[in-house]
User: What shape does this take?
Amino acid sequence: MNQTTHRPGGPFSRLMAALWLALAAAGAQAGQLTAYSSAGADVLKIYADQFAKSHPSIKVNWVRDSTGILQAKLMAEKDNPRADVVFGHTAANMVALGQAGMLTPYAPKGLERLSPIYLEKRSPPQWVGLYGWASAICFNTIEAKKSGVPKPLKWADLTQPAYKGKVMMPNPASSGTGLLMVNAWIQMWGEEKAWAYMDKLHDNIASYSHSGDKPCEQAGAGEVVVGLSLPVRGAKVKSAGAPIDVIIADEGTGWDMQAAGILKGSKNMDDAKLLLDWSISTEAMEAYGRNSEVTAVPVKVPKMENIPGNIAEKMIKVDFDWVAKDQSRVVAEWRKRYENKSEPKK
Assistant: This one.
C-alpha cells in the first residue's frame, strides 16, 4: 500500500494551516457578541445577567456609555463596525442609525406581541422598542403650603405667577429628560404654541440642571417647589421620605424608549438574532417591568413603590423620525432663548 508523506512546511501542511486559521477565526466569533448600550449601568447588569442565564453558551462583551457618547462612537465606527448589537439605546438615535444604513432589518420571534407604539414603521423592522419612561412633575407639598403655591395638575399651571422662581427643569441640551419634555410640548401643541409656553415657563424657572434626576431631588430637599423629572426618580425620592407628590400632567406626557437592533457587518448574525429574540421575550419584559415605568409587552410584576398608575394612558403619540431629524435644530433654538438660566457645567 503506497503511503504519501507530507513534509512540515510543504504545500499540504501550508494548506491545512491556512484552513485551521480560517476555522479558528470563524470559531472566535461563534458564541461571542459585542453589544453597545446606553441603558443605566445598574439595570443593564440585571438584563445582562438574565440573558447570560438563559444563553450560557453565548459570551456577550457589553460596552456601556451615555447616550450621546455611545451614538458618537457608533457613527464614528460606521464604516468599520466593532459591535454586533445595540441593546438599550433611545428610539431617536436608533432612527438615526437606520437612516445611516447601519442596521440589519430583523423581526424577532414574538414581534406580534409588542404594542404598536414600540414598533418601527418598516417590515421587517430595523429596531424594536423594549421599555419606556415618561416625564413627571415632582411637587413638594410642605414647601408649597408655606409659599401658598397651588398643586399643579397640568403643564399650563406652571406658568402661573405663584410658581415664579420655584421651578427647576433639566436642560435639553445636556439631558435627554429635558429634551423629551421639549419635544413633547412641540408635538402636542405645535411649535408656535410650544415656544410661547416655554417663554412663560422660563419666567418661573429658578435654574436648568444638567441632570434629569436633579430637579426632583431638589424638590424633595425643598430647594424648589417643583422639579420636572422622571416618574421613577420621583418614586424613589418619595419612597426615601421626601414630602412630594409625583404628578403626570393632564395634557399628556412625553416619553422615550430603549430599543434594540442588529448592526450591519455583524460577524455572528445567529447569536445576534438570539439576543434580539430574547430582548422581547416574556422573561426580558418581566425584568424590564420590575425596573422601568412601561414595557412594550404588558407584564404583571411588582411595580416600584409610588410610581403613578396613569403613565401609560397619558403617553402621547411620539414621531421619533421627527425627533431624530429636528433634534439639533430644537436644541439650538432652546439654547438661544433660555441658556442664561442654565447651571454652570462642573
Remarks:
- Residues 13-132+255-303 form a domain with the D-Maltodextrin-Binding Protein; domain 2 fold (CATH 3.40.190.10).
